[in-house]
């Protein structure tokens, strides 16, 4: 007769200790779950750990496993703020702020470790926590704050100085590479160059879209990071077209998309939106991994913000109005400067909005930031120290730039 | 429910499976628990395929690579895991919160070194959720530790040439700041 035993309550172990060692595959499953700072330190454990952690395959898997395991503690947002409005007024360099949680309650400050001659930095975007900044001119940097390394990109010399270009920054997951796209329109001729991190060089890419010969002028319209959705970067494009003999000009808007892997451009439709107020700003963004459009318009008593979402990528009919938020008593635009704007969606849905408002007609303008839930329209004020948030993007720890040419540590 | 009635070997949740460890202890566990151990499930399925006539299984499944101590802990963990899953069948978020809470409590009673034994058992039994949990637990137990602690923990020795390790340390000197005492 076999004597059976119920599973016992486990007790703290006080037993003979025999040397047990884990097989390599399990040891490395544990390594994969470590944060970046520990990984950098544990490269010193032994040669096999060092080469495992330095392996580009590990570095790219690191990103995908963080997505799958949904490490909420590790991801957050990076907020780029204007110079000299940081907490420390003596700060010379600009500040990027990382909000480590969704509520923006625990915020840490990252000082940009390089400086631009012009003194101004513009935020191109963040991909998996690798940030791209430039100064509207030839200087451009990739920066990984989680391993404290940055890299100055080779300059794109053929660009005419002070010509306003539009940029986008993306991750090509198929080849585990980072790319910067730079577009500027020489009136009706687009000049496009793509920088690939692994090649460390800029290559010319053709637009490959033929447009009506009546188009006289193009303008790419965005100060915000170009949304990266379904493997594509997106920009709002305004085309100014001749209507016909003696009929003047008309402009129309469309979405220009760039497939980061195949490096092909495409056009995407905008939703059919009735023209609202006279003063209006349309801006592309992303909402829970879908392409989205925010339309801000001036209203008699404030600003209205409508959000549209393209439910099925590339399908015109799938554009759907998500919500309309009205920001009472806000001032939308003063002499061409937009004062109330949507900055972007956070990962689980709420929209970060900058509001400039007046309590009474005579009182001074006040600036504040709120998170609005697009489903419940519940609004929550958040405190971001510093007055002027320029851009926001998602952030996570990453090991990119661990190795490579011309990478500097600080 | 309908899945069970369609299955070729009808089983009810009260069916027990007997597991025998390397130190000759015998555990009688519910089938639902045993089926989370993929190694056991495989053995059980093979047995049933070879022995179609027997309606209920009386098989004793030997586990020559698992001792009774880690198995008892794994059974407790597995039962709780199934219970939390059943209690929150329609709410994934709630389930995750309950699971996290249980796992935190669980770890209070486990020494980091004990985790090694549990991982080996979970790995042999191919109990994926437990393996993932224990790997996460080890990662969080060692993340603030020194390089020396980690070597000792995994039974590893430095194989760097003189000077190599110092160079590596210098490269990210800041990552050695704020490390726990061993």
Automatic annotation (TrEMBL), chain A:
<dbReference type="InterPro" id="IPR036047">
    <property type="entry name" value="F-box-like_dom_sf"/>
</dbReference>
<dbReference type="InterPro" id="IPR050796">
    <property type="entry name" value="SCF_F-box_component"/>
</dbReference>
<feature type="domain" description="F-box">
    <location>
        <begin position="16"/>
        <end position="62"/>
    </location>
</feature>
<dbReference type="InterPro" id="IPR017451">
    <property type="entry name" value="F-box-assoc_interact_dom"/>
</dbReference>
<protein>
    <recommendedName>
        <fullName>F-box domain-containing protein</fullName>
    </recommendedName>
</protein>
<dbReference type="InterPro" id="IPR001810">
    <property type="entry name" value="F-box_dom"/>
</dbReference>
<dbReference type="Pfam" id="PF07734">
    <property type="entry name" value="FBA_1"/>
</dbReference>
<dbReference type="InterPro" id="IPR006527">
    <property type="entry name" value="F-box-assoc_dom_typ1"/>
</dbReference>
<dbReference type="Pfam" id="PF00646">
    <property type="entry name" value="F-box"/>
</dbReference>
From TrEMBL, chain B:
<comment type="similarity">
    <text>Belongs to the SKP1 family.</text>
</comment>
<dbReference type="GO" id="GO:0006511">
    <property type="term" value="P:ubiquitin-dependent protein catabolic process"/>
</dbReference>
<dbReference type="GO" id="GO:0016567">
    <property type="term" value="P:protein ubiquitination"/>
</dbReference>
<dbReference type="GO" id="GO:0009867">
    <property type="term" value="P:jasmonic acid mediated signaling pathway"/>
</dbReference>
<dbReference type="Pfam" id="PF03931">
    <property type="entry name" value="Skp1_POZ"/>
</dbReference>
<dbReference type="Pfam" id="PF01466">
    <property type="entry name" value="Skp1"/>
</dbReference>
<keyword id="KW-0833">Ubl conjugation pathway</keyword>
<dbReference type="InterPro" id="IPR036296">
    <property type="entry name" value="SKP1-like_dim_sf"/>
</dbReference>
<feature type="domain" description="SKP1 component POZ">
    <location>
        <begin position="15"/>
        <end position="82"/>
    </location>
</feature>
<protein>
    <recommendedName>
        <fullName>SKP1-like protein</fullName>
    </recommendedName>
</protein>
<dbReference type="InterPro" id="IPR016072">
    <property type="entry name" value="Skp1_comp_dimer"/>
</dbReference>
<comment type="subunit">
    <text>Part of a SCF (SKP1-cullin-F-box) protein ligase complex.</text>
</comment>
<dbReference type="InterPro" id="IPR016897">
    <property type="entry name" value="SKP1"/>
</dbReference>
<feature type="domain" description="SKP1 component dimerisation">
    <location>
        <begin position="131"/>
        <end position="174"/>
    </location>
</feature>
<dbReference type="InterPro" id="IPR001232">
    <property type="entry name" value="SKP1-like"/>
</dbReference>
<comment type="pathway">
    <text>Protein modification; protein ubiquitination.</text>
</comment>
<dbReference type="InterPro" id="IPR016073">
    <property type="entry name" value="Skp1_comp_POZ"/>
</dbReference>
<comment type="function">
    <text>Involved in ubiquitination and subsequent proteasomal degradation of target proteins. Together with CUL1, RBX1 and a F-box protein, it forms a SCF E3 ubiquitin ligase complex. The functional specificity of this complex depends on the type of F-box protein. In the SCF complex, it serves as an adapter that links the F-box protein to CUL1.</text>
</comment>
<dbReference type="InterPro" id="IPR011333">
    <property type="entry name" value="SKP1/BTB/POZ_sf"/>
</dbReference>
């Amino acid at each position: 007769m076999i004597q059976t035993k119920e599973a016992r309550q486990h007790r703290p172990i006080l037993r003979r200790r025999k040397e047990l060692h884990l097989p390599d595959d399990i040891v490395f499953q544990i390594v994969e779950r470590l944060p970046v700072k520990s990984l950098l330190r544990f490269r010193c454990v032994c040669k096999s750990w060092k080469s495992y952690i330095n392996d580009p395959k590990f570095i790219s898997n690191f990103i995908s496993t963080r997505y799958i395991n949904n490490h909420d503690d590790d991801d957050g947002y990076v907020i780029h703020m204007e110079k000299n409005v940081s907490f420390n007024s003596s700060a010379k360099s600009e500040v990027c702020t990382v909000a480590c949680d969704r509520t923006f309650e625990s915020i840490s400050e990252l000082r940009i470790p390089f400086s631009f001659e012009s003194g101004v930095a513009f935020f191109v975007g963040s991909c998996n926590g690798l940030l791209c900044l430039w100064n509207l001119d030839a200087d451009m940097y990739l920066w990984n704050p989680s391993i404290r390394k940055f890299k100055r990109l080779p300059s794109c010399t053929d660009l005419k100085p002070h010509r306003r270009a539009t940029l986008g920054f993306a991750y090509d997951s198929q080849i585990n590479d980072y790319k910067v796209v730079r577009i500027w329109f020489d009136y009706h001729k687009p000049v496009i160059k793509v920088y690939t991190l692994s090649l460390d060089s800029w290559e010319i890419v053709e637009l490959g879209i033929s447009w009506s010969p009546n188009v006289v002028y193009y303008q790419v319209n965005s100060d915000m990071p170009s949304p990266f959705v379904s493997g594509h970067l997106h920009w709002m494009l305004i085309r100014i077209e001749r209507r016909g003999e003696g009929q003047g000009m008309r402009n129309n808007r469309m979405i220009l998309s760039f497939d980061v892997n195949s490096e092909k451009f495409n056009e995407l439709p905008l939703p059919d939106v009735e023209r609202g107020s006279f003063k209006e700003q349309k801006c592309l963004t992303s909402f829970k991994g879908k392409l989205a459009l925010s339309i801000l318009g001036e209203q008699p008593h404030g600003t209205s913000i409508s959000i549209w979402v393209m439910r099925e990528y590339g399908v015109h009919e799938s554009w759907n109005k998500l919500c309309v938020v009205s920001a009472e008593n806000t001032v939308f635009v003063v002499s061409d400067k937009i004062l109330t704007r949507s900055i972007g969606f956070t990962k689980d849905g709420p929209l970060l909005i900058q509001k400039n408002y007046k309590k009474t007609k005579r009182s001074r303008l006040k600036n504040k930031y709120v998170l609005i839930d697009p489903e419940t329209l519940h609004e929550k004020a958040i405190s971001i120290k510093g007055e002027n948030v320029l851009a926001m993007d998602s952030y996570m720890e990453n090991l990119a730039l661990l190795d490579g040419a011309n990478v500097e540590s600080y | 429910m309908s899945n069970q009635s369609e299955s070729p070997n009808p089983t009810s949740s009260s069916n027990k499976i007997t597991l025998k460890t390397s130190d000759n202890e015998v555990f009688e566990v519910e089938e639902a628990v045993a089926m989370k151990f993929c190694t056991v499930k495989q053995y059980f399925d093979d047995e049933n395929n070879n022995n179609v006539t027997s309606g209920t299984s009386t098989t004793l499944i030997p586990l020559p690579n698992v001792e009774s101590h880690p198995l008892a802990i794994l059974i407790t963990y597995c039962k709780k895991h199934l219970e939390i899953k059943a209690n929150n069948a329609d709410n994934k978020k709630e389930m995750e919160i309950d699971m996290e809470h249980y796992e935190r409590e669980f770890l209070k009673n486990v020494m980091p070194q004990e985790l090694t034994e549990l991982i080996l058992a979970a790995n042999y039994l191919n109990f994926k959720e437990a393996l993932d949990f224990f790997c996460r637990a080890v990662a969080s137990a060692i993340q603030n530790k020194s390089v020396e602690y980690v070597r000792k923990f995994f039974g590893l020795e430095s194989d760097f040439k003189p000077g190599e390790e110092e160079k590596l340390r210098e490269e990210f000197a800041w990552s050695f700041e704020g490390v726990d005492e061993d």
